[in-house]
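Example 3.2
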Amino acid sequence: MTYKTAALVDPETTALLPDIELGPDDILAYYHAAPVLFGHYWIQGEPIVTDRRRLSLDYSVAKGGHLTAYQWDGETELDPSKLVYVS
């Protein structure tokens, strides 16, 4: 895994990241059945699911972005149709 493949950002930002390998001390493994939803990333643009197991819900609502939520029903992989948001 590299910085580029591990990133949970929009495609334009991903293109700017280095393709440098991450070492075992650079990442924390997550092996639970439930996906991880998190925030505090100030992502710009339209909310999208970039990874089936982890999802940032922070789309900068305080800076004119989107208030974002995920309608989780116990699935182990995130479904893009369950990502909802308002401006």
